[in-house]
Amino acid sequence: MTDTGLRGAQRPSAPRERRPQPERSRPSCREEPDTLARLVEVLAEHADAADHTAAFPEESVDALRRAGYLGFLVPTEHGGMGRDLAGLVETAQALAGGCLSTAMIWVMHCQQVDVLVRHADADLLDRLLPAVARGELYLASVTTGPVTGGHLLTAAEPLRRVTGDDASEADGDLWLERTAPVVTGGSRAEGFLVTMRAAQDAGRHSVSLVYADRSALTVESTGRWNTLGMRGTDSGPLRLRGSVPADQIVGTPGGFRRVATDSMIPLAHLGWSACWLGAARGALRGLLAWLRDSSAHDTSSPLVRERIARVRLELELVSAYLERMRERVDEVRAAGGSLDSPATQIQLNTLKLAASELSFSAVDRMVQLAGLSAGYSAESPLRLERAFRDLRSAALNYANDRLLTANGSLALLDRKVGLL
What we know:
The protein has 420 residues and is of the alpha+beta class. It is built from ten helices and eight strands. The model is unreliable at 1-31 (pLDDT under 50).
């Protein structure tokens, strides 16, 4: 979720002071390891059904709601868990081991929460974050377009001001009409963060991000989500139409680029990569257990051990790069810096490229090792076939070709060749 021209964003402002909030009950972090293990079991229990029916995993997401996990990144003063990026990466991996579709829904919701926490004004935060923390507000992202495709930093459809001629709307509100070909979990979202062209006379690179509550919109499904993998994400096309208060722009009008480089892009690459790694890691755990108990393979065979080693090598590389990039994002944020330098953008893009390609390659190797019946069959208890189909989407989820082109352009600007 990035583009070739990501330099020049403003420095993030210093953290704003929060008004004191009444103490609210929230999930106990001490109980989280047990809670997380139970959640993974719930996700695994419902993963096949979500995959077979290409349906939103209601039971799994409801379990996350009840456990307070929609408020994972919500600060404690708003009733949330107040967790950090390290916890997000670790938890996403665990959840993806149960159901990759549900884990992706969760990390993309958390991405939207991070955007709000870092860039929404205090009044909007006070209205939204307590509901998120209570599990009442699941957020979806609307950034794709029929004209702009997946280009995050452009928008074709403009916001316009509601005037007195629009008798059914409040004067000064913003009128939003938006078509999006891909909206993860959009059919069930209670709120949306939507990219729009800032005004009717603005260029496509002048993009505003606006929060819209579902109750303020007409939400129409315009097609089905029937794909090879990631079927449970329910990422079908939507058309949104309605008016929202002008104070629900997140960041400055036309200033989405800063929001994207500071929050939306890094959270996407960290969260997605953690999910892909977690799914492949879970598949490897299952395969190794099967190999230990199965007589179908001689685990003393040098060929079998070499294949296992290559799978482990690929996952180790993804894990190490993911952890280092998470540390890098935390370092820059803690210093109040910007993530928009050519070197850092290359590194964030490289994380997505490496995680998407190596995680899929690892599962491909596992299928080859397990064989036709245990690896390739949809009836196999190893579920490698589902992991294979799901992870095939990783290179298409903000296409790797686009990121490689962007990295080539950015590399020409990074004269120091600043490696991670």
